[in-house]
Amino acid sequence: MNKRFITLLLAAGIAVIFVATALHAGTEVKDTFTMETDGYKKRKKAPPKFNFVEFSHKTHATDYKISCGECHHDKDGKALDIKMGDDVKGCGECHNKFKKDKKNKKDIMVHENAMHGNCISCHKEINIKAGDPKGRKGPAPASCGKCHTKIKK
After folding, report:
1. Residue 129 scores a pLDDT above 90
2. Taking a C-beta distance cutoff of 8 angstroms, is the pair 109, 96 a contact?
3. Strands (E) located in the chain
4. Where are the chain's structural domains?
5. pTM of the predicted structure, to 2 decimals
6. How far is Cα of residue 143 from the mean position of the Cα atoms in its chain?
7. Contacts for 120-126: CB closer than 8 Å, 24+ residues apart
8. Is there a contact between 109 and 92 (Cβ–Cβ < 8 Å)?
9. Which fold has domain 28-147?
């Protein structure tokens, strides 16, 4: 065989390995992470009173058997068919408004509205299924202080 042909095959093989590794790598998903974004780090008036919420992917996916698509969705709100480790965007990449508009207080593009709408509605649904008709009490935290802990001074 020609040396040039062997070199070309070797180079192509190495390129395939790099591409396959990059595709397989996806996004590393931490078991637990702090739901913070740069938008909330730029406070100008007063220091925050509450810690950022700690979220457990592992608990929700493994223990509660909630699919990734329950939270991660496309621009039309349709659940994405993803698995742990797939390359996905964080919430703040799309829900990137950090100040509520007085004319449209429920704007879903406001990060806080998206998080509260998604988390609280799911938690209330779980609590309703567990027997509380209002969904406020039960196994899933549905009150502010359960997820937002006060910062100790």
Report:
1. yes
2. yes
3. 32-34, 54-56
4. 28-147
5. 0.69
6. 20
7. 122/66, 122/70
8. no
9. Cytochrome C3 (3.90.10)
